[in-house]
TrEMBL record:
<dbReference type="InterPro" id="IPR036746">
    <property type="entry name" value="TT1725-like_sf"/>
</dbReference>
<dbReference type="Pfam" id="PF04456">
    <property type="entry name" value="DUF503"/>
</dbReference>
<dbReference type="InterPro" id="IPR007546">
    <property type="entry name" value="DUF503"/>
</dbReference>
<protein>
    <submittedName>
        <fullName>Uncharacterized protein YlxP (DUF503 family)</fullName>
    </submittedName>
</protein>
Length: 51
C-alpha cells in the first residue's frame, strides 16, 4: 500500500469482513501476532479502523 520506493520499509493493510466484531478483532490480532513472530520484522505503528 505504501513505501514501494523505500528500502527496508513497507506499509500494508489487513482486511477482514464479518458480521461479528469480536471475530474480526480475533483475526486481526492473530495476523498481527504472526507478523510479530518474525524477529527480523519490527512493527512500529499500527492503526485499526472499524467501518
Amino acid at each position: 500500500m505504501g513505501y514501494q520506493d523505500l528500502w527496508q520499509r513497507t506499509l500494508f493493510g489487513l482486511v477482514t469482513i464479518s458480521s461479528d466484531k469480536v471475530q474480526s478483532e480475533r483475526i486481526i490480532h492473530q495476523a498481527l501476532g504472526l507478523i510479530d513472530s518474525f524477529p527480523d520484522i519490527e512493527r512500529t505503528k499500527t492503526t485499526v479502523e472499524w467501518l
